[in-house]
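Is this the right way to post structure tokens for a design question? Let me know if I should format differently. Anyway, here goes:
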């Protein structure tokens, strides 16, 4: 294996480890931002790590009547998220897994994790689990096509659905970022990422009201290590999606196809700063908005789908070819 290939593989491993380690810190940072803006002290950035450690030490309790679906769902959610973290171009472009970083493959992995957790909620046979699952799959049916369309709009100038190729084309032609297609795609992606990760105004991750829950209603029956895995996977999904939107629209700092060790470290610092800034903005905006009523959520997501469709149309007319 050549030195270049070895460094590219190291970058891939580094970004997976970074996502695993930083995801709870990102969630804790967002909670801390909200707490400070609301005039509270907050539990500190490290509180989610302490919560995970406490859950990992607790006894695992499995509801009576559940099947292997309930038992394997947390592993499927965490596994698909880790695979996405490995194939996304977060730190460097020259990853050995870049050929697998296809737009449709990444969206498929996201949907696979969502479906696994949805089936687990149904498997419990409880009213709240079924309610949360039905709501989650309704949102997913609107979110996943929008992600495909929005990123497809960005792929039109580069004539490739590969995410690394899209990021590379955007870095080489930064003028595309102010094109109508890119601006519309950014707004559409921002809305669907909020919905995909269960943030306000679509869902409230800190709610304790069962009737308003979506994501949390599906995991009410989990406890101990499996609940820790679900919470960990939720934080990792938020991290990788923020990293994806950061590099799609702000690709500066990412290492090239032949990375050096210095370029990899710069890429790690750059993506960390971009994700932290996006998370801070998201947490700040959540202070000023309220959760939508459930029947209003499809209207919001339908609007984001329309924006993504307009982004595709605008990209065909306004984008500058890169070839």
């Amino acid at each position: 294996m050549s030195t270049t290939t070895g460094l590219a593989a190291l970058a891939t491993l580094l970004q997976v480890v970074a996502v695993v380690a930083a995801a709870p810190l990102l969630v804790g940072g967002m909670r801390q931002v909200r707490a400070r803006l609301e005039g509270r002290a907050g539990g500190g950035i490290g509180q989610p790590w302490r919560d995970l450690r406490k859950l990992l030490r607790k006894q695992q309790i499995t509801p009576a009547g559940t099947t292997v679906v309930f038992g394997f769902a947390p592993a499927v959610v965490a596994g698909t998220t880790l695979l996405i973290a490995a194939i996304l171009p977060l730190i460097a472009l020259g990853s050995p897994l870049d050929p697998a970083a296809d737009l449709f493959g990444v969206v498929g992995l996201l949907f696979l994790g969502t479906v696994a957790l949805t089936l687990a909620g149904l498997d419990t046979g409880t009213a709240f689990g079924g309610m949360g699952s039905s709501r989650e799959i309704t949102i997913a049916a609107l979110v996943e096509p929008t992600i495909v369309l929005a990123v497809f709009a960005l792929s039109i100038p580069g004539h490739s659905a590969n995410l690394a190729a899209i990021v590379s084309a955007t870095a080489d032609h930064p003028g595309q970022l102010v094109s109508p297609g890119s601006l519309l795609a950014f707004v559409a992606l921002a809305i669907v990422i909020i919905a995909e990760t269960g943030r306000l105004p679509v869902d409230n991750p800190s709610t304790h009201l069962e009737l308003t829950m979506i994501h949390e209603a599906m995991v009410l029956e989990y406890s101990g290590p499996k609940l820790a895995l679900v919470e960990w996977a939720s934080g990792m999904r938020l991290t990788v999606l923020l990293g994806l939107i950061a590099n799609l629209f702000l690709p500066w700092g990412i290492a090239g196809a032949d990375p050096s060790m210095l370029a990899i470290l710069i890429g790690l610092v750059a993506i960390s700063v971009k994700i932290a800034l996006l998370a801070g903005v998201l947490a700040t905006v959540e202070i000023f908005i309220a959760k939508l009523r459930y029947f209003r959520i499809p209207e919001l997501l339908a609007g984001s789908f329309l924006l993504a469709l307009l982004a595709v149309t605008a990209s065909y007319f306004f984008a500058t070819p890169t070839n």
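Format looks fine. Someone answered above. Worth noting: The first helix runs from residue 3 to 37. The mean pLDDT is 90.
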